[in-house]
Design goal:
The protein has eleven helices and no strands. The chain is an all-alpha fold and 220 residues long. The protein starts with a helix and ends with a helix. The relative contact order is 0.11.
Length: 220
């Protein structure tokens, strides 16, 4: 069994102990994995998923969330970009991914409270916002945006991958649209919400964002 499917199965068992047998759980995970491996994807691939898992584990180790919350967040991560079409209307990928999550989790006997939490986490990624008072929301938001604080080579690779996913968009239009996404992240009072991410990820993220915005709109 692939390592990612093993991780998926373990997290399902933690959050929904009455889920069907492991074969049924793994089958649902395999369907999700196929989505993440769609050939049209460049950034929104299993690499992004694994990087989110690593960021969530770091936040778990820093006690920003507990182990069960980390499992819930990893399950939400599986779904948050499960439906991904760069040409879709704003917010529709997240809405469709949330619906997919509810359908899948209902088949796996998840409780309403956990389904609601996962639905909420998926939908908040549409605006890259979170309520700082909700620890789980803040941690999930920060893990999804961890890439902004990545080492320079990885961050630059991420920017190139996103451009590849939007290859159908003319360059001038892409530069403006991309700057409208990244600019507000830089100009917020803070990019991240959890204390750990603020201390460890905020500064490199601001350096990366500043470099990319300068590249998108170089001074003439």
């Amino acid at each position: 069994m692939p390592a990612l499917i093993s991780r998926w199965t373990l997290d399902v068992r933690v959050v929904a102990p009455h889920a069907p047998d492991n074969e049924a759980v793994a089958r649902e995970g395999a369907g999700l994995l196929a989505r993440w491996n769609e050939p049209s994807r460049r950034y929104h691939t299993t690499t992004h998923l694994v990087e989110m898992f690593g960021a969530l584990e770091e936040l778990d180790n820093a006690r920003e969330i507990d182990d069960r919350q980390c499992s819930v967040a990893r399950l939400a991560a599986w779904f948050h970009d499960a439906v991904y079409d760069p040409a879709a209307a704003s917010g529709s990928n997240e809405a469709d991914s949330a619906l997919l999550a509810r359908d899948t989790l209902r088949r796996l006997s998840f409780g309403d409270e956990d389904m609601d939490a996962i639905d909420r986490l998926i939908r908040l990624t549409a605006r890259h916002e979170a309520h700082g008072s909700e620890r789980l929301d803040a941690a999930f938001h920060d893990a999804d945006l961890w890439i902004l604080s990545a080492p320079q080579a990885r961050f630059d690779g991420y920017c190139d991958q996103v451009r590849d996913e939007y290859a159908f968009v003319p360059d001038a239009l892409y530069r403006n649209a991309r700057a409208s996404v990244l600019g507000p992240l830089l100009h917020r009072d803070r990019t991240f919400h959890t204390p750990h991410a603020l201390y460890n990820w905020e500064a490199p993220a601001r350096i990366n964002l500043s470099r990319e915005l300068a590249r998108l709109h170089p001074q003439t």
